[in-house]
Automatic annotation (TrEMBL):
Gene that encodes the chain: Cd8b
GO molecular function terms listed in the Swiss-Prot or TrEMBL record: coreceptor activity; MHC class I protein binding
The protein's name in its UniProt record: CD8B protein
Region of interest: Disordered: 124-150
Annotated keywords: Adaptive immunity, Disulfide bond, Glycoprotein, Immunity, Immunoglobulin domain, Membrane, Signal, Transmembrane, Transmembrane helix
Signal peptide start and end residues: none
Any one biological process term the GO annotation gives: adaptive immune response
Superkingdom of the organism of origin: Eukaryota
GO cellular component: cell surface; membrane
Length: 150
């Protein structure tokens, strides 16, 4: 079974980024462990894909068909923290990523990071932007409009 646990602190919760960019997920382990696993939950295929295992010496073992070029794990020696670096991002990399340690035949999971890769980021709403509706929006009060014409 899979169990989520507070022994693994995973940050951030959400990542929204663009195609071809790169990103990083951090996981801190507060328990004795032999290494850290990274999984991705695939919504469309409804299963966990094993990405990479990193032992306490920092040696990585990759899952089948997982590109070492795309996924890199860095381990900070002083703290038990591991970061997963994902590069050349594609929309197909979207999903929920979990760090995980194995403990007495159970897999303990971090809280998960939802990654969404899009071709173009939605623009932040600007105060000055006119709404893109078909009707013209009379935003200016008559007083201001009059003083503009003058």
């Amino acid at each position: 079974g899979f169990y989520t646990t507070l022994l693994l602190t995973q940050t951030p919760e959400h990542i929204l980024t663009q195609t071809n960019h790169k990103t990083e997920i951090l996981c801190e382990v507060k328990k004795e462990h032999t290494g850290l696993y990274w999984y991705r939950w695939s919504q469309e295929r409804q299963h966990f894909e094993f990405l990479v295992f990193c032992n306490t010496l920092g040696k990585a073992t990759y899952g089948t068909n997982v590109s070492q070029d795309k996924f890199r794990v860095h381990r900070a020696r002083l703290h038990s923290s591991y970061s997963l670096h994902i590069s050349h991002l594609q929309p197909s990399d979207s999903g929920t990523y979990y760090c995980s340690i194995s403990q007495s035949s159970q897999l303990l999971l971090g809280s998960g990071t939802r990654l969404r890769v899009v071709d173009a980021l939605p623009l932040p709403p600007k105060a000055t932007q006119t709404p893109l509706s078909k009707k013209p929006a009379p935003r200016v009060t008559k007083h201001k409009a009059a003083s503009r014409e003058g």
